[in-house]
Amino acid sequence: MTNSETSHDVGVDPRRWKALTFICIAQLMVVLDATVVNIALPDAKAELGISTSSQQWVITAYSLAFGGLLLLGGRVADAWGRRRAFITGLIGFAAASALGGAAANEAMLFGSRALQGVFAALLAPSALSLLTVMFTAPKERARAFGIFGAIAGGGAAVGLLLGGLLTQTLDWRWTMYINVVFAAIALFGAIVEIKEPPRTELHTTRMDVGGAVLASVGLALVVYGFSHASETSWSNTWTVVSLVAAVVLLGAFVLRQSRTANPLLPLRVVADRARGGAYLTVGLSVIAMFGSFLFLTLYLQQAHHYSPISAGVAFLPMVGGMLIGSTQIAVRLITRVPPRFLMVPGAVVGGCGMLLLTQISADTTRYWSVVFPALLLLGLGMGTMFMASVNLATHGVEPRDAGIASAMVNTSQQVGGAIGTALLNTIAANATAHFLTAHRSDVTSRHDVTRLVTRAMVHGQSLGFLVAALVLFGAGIAAAVLVNVRSAIGAPGHAETPEVAAPAA
């Protein structure tokens, strides 16, 4: 063990590995909740009488509150205490989930989903920032982030499996009630095992209320604008107004952060070239992944009539690939090679997996020849890239900024998810419509109509996978160009902050 590692070990909490277990349970709950209700939505819609025009709010209400309040949640965790914010987030999330499970009408369900998003915005950055300040020795940090990265990356796929299992065997309401179980376990661990390292700050700075309002409303409008575009069109008045207003508000937010004495988001956190590249890489990877989840779920269930459980099980190769990529490949190499040597190949491997998915067929699932190897490649690539990106994004930040740096990771994910769902869904829908128009003359019977619709849908999804692959290759280019850290994270001679370790190329 090196001297630097020894110095890091002084005074570390011996319970940190047990604490990691409960932090990961909380993170899994937050991530899977973005997808666990997707498969349950038809049943909830029928029971509560939710209209088709309103059904997207089951998803959007959560995303709006979560994405809009993340920066505020990260700064609250820094100012208030990460463990306290973590516990508060768990209690609030559990209460909101119980409310959603007991929903008697659509308004009650929508409100509970928004409330889940509010507490997720406090819980997610506090969980990651606890990890950041509890694990400082390079090799331990690599293992901890490998496990956390696998959970964060594969949680959405686990949500699809869990949603199908609960809906098919119990009731759609259990997609909400299950969070109470997760939260209770994590809360027990937070109280018994998690101990936040002593805070070095002697005073708490004032909260930038004006900045919080600008950031929260601006980010919420970004999420809403892209979500609304996926439901209507890019030229829809509300879509345009939302996105233009978001640009104005976020521009005003950046201007305010550069001038105020107590910024919500200190620009030093995002101005670093390597860290900014890590945030961009995370956002681009999520754009591609969220689109693939949507397309592949529809492909398996609508084109080939998979049951909800079978569709969820079909995603397991990706989860396995993520576990290998993050906990075996990335963990073993993150302290030996510069982070972009993991991020770039990870993006390329993931992109190749996405390219393979363009070979799906309306006639047969091609599961073992196309879907299975594609998901395995996607998981390996994304697990490797995501772990390295998150580690780099939170490495070397000042302890007082750990929460806000962690919040930026989650913000990249949320904004990326909203953009990916809207952008790729629009591209696929347009391609499907053009295919139907071009092949309308092929229809001679009712059977031909059904077959044509399926072929058109698969054609649109194939194009969506192609665009997603290009986005992943773009993530690799971004990592290669921006992430200019020249040594492995935690390697001898690697400075504590990327600002020192990564001079401009």
TrEMBL record:
Q: Where is the Major facilitator superfamily (MFS) profile domain?
A: 19-486
Instruction: Give UniProt keywords alphabetically.
Output: Cell membrane, Membrane, Transmembrane, Transmembrane helix, Transport
Extract the SUPFAM superfamilies matched here: MFS general substrate transporter (SSF103473)
Output the superkingdom of the source species: Bacteria
An annotated Gene Ontology molecular function: transmembrane transporter activity
Q: Where are the transmembrane segments?
A: 20-42, 54-73, 85-104, 116-137, 144-162, 174-194, 206-226, 238-255, 276-300, 312-334, 341-361, 367-390, 463-483
Matches recorded under InterPro entries: EmrB-like, MFS, MFS_dom, MFS_trans_sf, Sugar_transporter_CS
Describe its membrane topology: Multi-pass membrane protein
GO cellular component terms, semicolon-separated: plasma membrane
Assign the protein's first listed, main location to one coarse class. Answer: membrane
Subcellular location as annotated? Cell membrane
Sections of the chain in a coiled coil: none
Task: Identify the Gene3D superfamilies for this entry.
Answer: MFS general substrate transporter like domains (1.20.1250.20), Multidrug resistance protein D (1.20.1720.10)
Supply the name of the protein.
Drug resistance transporter, EmrB/QacA subfamily
Q: Which organism is it from?
A: Williamsia sterculiae
